[in-house]
Design goal:
two-stranded parallel sheet; alpha/beta; globular; 301 residues
Length: 301
């Protein structure tokens, strides 16, 4: 398996029948380059089957100079680490998604999979453990124990390796916060695709936890999310695509990719009533503070 092309069985597909899978046009380039701190390049997210290296080149052309490629199971975590090792535009995050934990626990495989995540987390261009966390949207009461066990172990792996933690938090704000406080959050903790309100933003402010805003920030039905952005401490704000999901307006429903991050960042600047170049500079600096340098010649965070 090469990093350039995911092997058969790894490449994922999204999109329901009838969905418009044509790619939106590239937005105007950003005035200051920054990073997409959460994306999934392994997905076959458009009818043209844009390959990871082509996707990265298209992102570079609009001012997205690098990405954090995020794993959700062993297969995608291994591939993410491999891609990061082979391309200077990529850093990796490795983890078992919370929805994977109950299935692995039921098969008696959770401990072994977590051990492999721990091994991958030690690789030099793996700069985060993620995405991990809690997701009570699809998991019932019988799956919560496995999710919490996996989340706690991921936290310890991040701390043991001195790298960031990327949190997936769906319908579980209070439980995620309680777990972080009970176990002790890593120094650099990121709420991926921040979905909370001003209350959660203030909790993140208090503890120095980063908030990463995605295409949902542009949605018409998300005024509470934009209000949370205005409350977030500027030095804790990041930006992401979560591609191929959460495509920003006005392209909602079509495939997302890192090259569309400027659409979200421009809406963030409007919400904050901040010059775009100033916000880009701030997001770039925040991102490098969390993950270290993308330059293979420089020492990581």
């Amino acid at each position: 398996m090469t990093a350039e092309t995911p092997a058969p069985g790894l490449r994922k597909r999204v999109g329901a029948p009838g969905r418009d899978l044509t790619r939106p046009a590239s937005p105007e380039p950003l005035p200051v380059p920054l990073y997409d701190n959460h994306t999934h390049l392994e997905f076959e997210d458009g009818i043209d089957q844009l390959e990871p290296l082509d996707s990265l080149a298209r992102a570079e052309a609009v001012g997205v100079r690098g990405v954090v490629q995020v794993g959700t199971d062993l297969e995608t975590s291994r591939w993410s680490a491999q891609l990061a090792a082979s391309d200077p535009r990529v850093l990796a995050a490795v983890a078992l998604h919370p929805n994977e934990a109950p299935k692995l626990f039921a098969r008696g495989e959770l401990s072994a999979h977590l051990s492999e995540i721990s091994r991958l987390a030690a690789e030099p261009r793996v700069r985060a453990v993620g995405e991990t966390g809690l997701d009570f949207f699809r998991t019932g009461e019988d799956g919560r124990e496995a999710q919490i066990e996996a989340f706690e172990t991921h936290i310890e792996i991040a701390k043991a390796n001195g790298i960031a933690l990327q949190i997936h938090d769906r319908d579980a704000h209070d439980e995620v916060v309680a777990t972080l406080l009970r176990v002790g959050a890593p120094e650099r903790t990121v709420f991926h695709c921040f979905s909370g309100d001003t209350r959660l933003a203030r909790i993140c402010n208090e503890h120095g936890w980063y908030m990463s805003f995605a295409g949902t920030t542009t949605f018409k039905n998300a005024p509470a999310l934009r209000e949370a952005l205005t409350v977030a401490r500027p030095e804790l704000v990041l930006a992401e695509t979560d591609a191929p999901f959460l495509t920003p307006e006005p392209h909602r429903g079509r495939p997302n990719a890192p090259y569309l991050l400027p659409v979200t960042v421009r809406r963030m600047a409007e919400t904050l009533e901040m010059p775009l170049d100033e916000l880009c500079t701030r997001i770039a600096a925040n991102t490098e503070r969390v993950y270290g340098s993308w330059d293979p010649e420089e020492v990581s965070a």
